């Protein structure tokens, strides 16, 4: 089609009396000047009239995505194709009798057209990547990885087409020769290829997305993902340091992704308080009467006391504490904590909410809270957790319980030595 159009234009110029002979260098120079002048005027009209008018419409539009395309100059880069196409069309006609120069300029202009097309597509891809960031699409899909992958693909396609144009060979000829160099390429660019393949896996399986909180102790990474590319993952740690992790490391090594916590809207509190075993005892009647006035235990005592009395009806000697069932201060404490947590409006009621007793250790009896806050923001999460345990430590004496604590220097100094003289 291109050759036919050139032939038609050459015939039209010939009929109009315009002909560049091999010996007429002046006519050839004039025709070249006219070709460049036409190309320049066409570019000026395209950029100053068409592109300017479209940009004016974009500025007045209500949507924002077109402003991003304008900021990356996609239309301006496309406008460069107009003079390139004009020169690619007219210069070979003008240099019909200048074989070597005509071939060089013809092929060079064809390569220039390929470069301009790829530059415009690159600008469009960068704009799409920013649109994905603005619309938060990149939190669900690693758009930048796909953009880089497509850019890399376009680069190789552009190189193959450019080389085939310069060598006047079919692109298939060069594609068939790539297999020979595959082994050398894999040896030299091993890390790049590993990162490339890992980047595709990360993108396809959504293992890591921008904005995720990941933790990878091996690389000292503990923070939010700033960027996911084909070769590296950029993590901004909570101390504002930056960690660059190779993409293939996230595929081959273990790491923790806290995305599920954010998506579910609940962050786990899993912490225990160790009780001094010596402070655990059966509740007396006076203690039961006093604790019955606690709001969170008003429904608990009538039910559990009724069950215990029914169970103890067959007990003969109830004066012995080991005979029959009795309420303990630690059991009542667990019941109180369960009711207290269920009435806490900062905890997630649709997720696990549990107060459990763990196996006793040399540091006492652990009573563990396993709950989820309904605010996953770090500072708020820490505040909710601190408020809960502040309350727990403060109410322990109400149940006759004590928190376990290893002896300190003051404890040891308070021990009075035996002054008796033997």
UniProtKB/TrEMBL annotation:
> Which top-rank group of organisms is this from?
Bacteria
Q: What is its main location?
A: membrane
Q: Where is the Mechanosensitive ion channel MscS domain?
A: 191-259
Topological type in the membrane: Multi-pass membrane protein
Does the UniProt entry include the keyword Membrane?
Answer: yes
Which InterPro entries does this one have? LSM_dom_sf (IPR010920), MS_channel_C (IPR049278), MscS_beta-dom_sf (IPR023408), MscS_channel_2nd (IPR006685), YbdG (IPR030192)
Q: Where are the transmembrane segments?
A: 26-45, 78-97, 109-128, 149-167, 173-200
Provide this UniProt record's keywords sorted from A to Z: Membrane, Transmembrane, Transmembrane helix
Q: Which protein family is it in? A: Belongs to the MscS (TC 1.A.23) family.
The cellular location(s) given in this protein's UniProt record come to: Endomembrane system
Q: Which Pfam families match?
A: MS_channel_2nd, MS_channel_3rd
Protein name as it appears in the record? Mechanosensitive ion channel family protein
């Amino acid at each position: 089609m291109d050759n036919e159009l050139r032939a038609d234009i050459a015939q039209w110029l010939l009929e109009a009396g315009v002909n560049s002979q091999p010996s007429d260098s002046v006519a050839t120079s004039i025709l070249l000047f006219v070709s460049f002048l036409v190309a320049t005027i066409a570019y000026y009209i395209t950029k100053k009239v068409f592109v300017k008018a479209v940009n004016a419409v974009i500025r007045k539009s209500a949507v924002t995505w077109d402003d991003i395309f304008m900021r990356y100059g996609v239309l301006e880069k496309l406008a460069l194709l107009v003079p390139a196409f004009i020169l690619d069309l007219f210069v070979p006609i003008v240099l019909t009798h200048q074989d070597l120069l005509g071939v060089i300029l013809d092929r060079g202009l064809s390569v220039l057209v390929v470069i301009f097309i790829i530059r415009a597509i690159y600008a469009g891809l960068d704009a799409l990547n920013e649109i994905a960031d603005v619309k938060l699409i990149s939190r669900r899909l690693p758009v930048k990885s796909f953009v880089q992958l497509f850019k890399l693909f376009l680069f190789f396609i552009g190189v193959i087409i450019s080389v085939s144009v310069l060598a006047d060979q079919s692109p298939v000829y060069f594609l068939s020769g790539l297999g020979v160099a595959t082994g050398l390429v894999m040896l030299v660019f091993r890390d790049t290829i590993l990162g490339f393949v890992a980047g595709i896996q990360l993108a396809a399986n959504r293992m890591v997305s921008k904005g995720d909180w990941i933790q990878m102790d091996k690389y000292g990474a503990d923070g939010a993902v700033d960027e996911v590319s084909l070769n590296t993952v950029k993590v901004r740690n909570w101390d504002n340091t930056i960690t660059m992790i190779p993409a293939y490391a996230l595929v081959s090594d273990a790491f923790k992704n806290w995305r599920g916590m954010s998506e579910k809207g609940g962050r786990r509190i899993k912490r225990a308080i160790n009780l001094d075993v010596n402070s655990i005892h059966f509740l007396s009647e006076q203690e039961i009467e006093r604790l019955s006035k606690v709001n969170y235990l008003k429904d608990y005592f009538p039910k559990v006391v009724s069950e215990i009395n029914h169970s103890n009806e067959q007990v003969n000697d109830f004066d012995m504490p080991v005979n029959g069932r009795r309420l303990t201060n630690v059991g009542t404490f667990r019941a109180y904590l369960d009711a207290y947590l269920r009435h806490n409006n900062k905890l997630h009621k649709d997720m696990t909410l549990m107060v459990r007793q763990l196996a006793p250790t040399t540091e006492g009896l652990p009573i563990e809270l396993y709950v989820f806050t309904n605010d996953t923001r770090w500072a708020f999460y820490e505040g909710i957790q601190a408020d809960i345990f502040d309350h727990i430590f403060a109410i322990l004496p109400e149940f006759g319980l004590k928190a376990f604590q290893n002896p300190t220097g003051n404890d040891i100094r308070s021990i009075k030595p035996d002054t008796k003289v033997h």
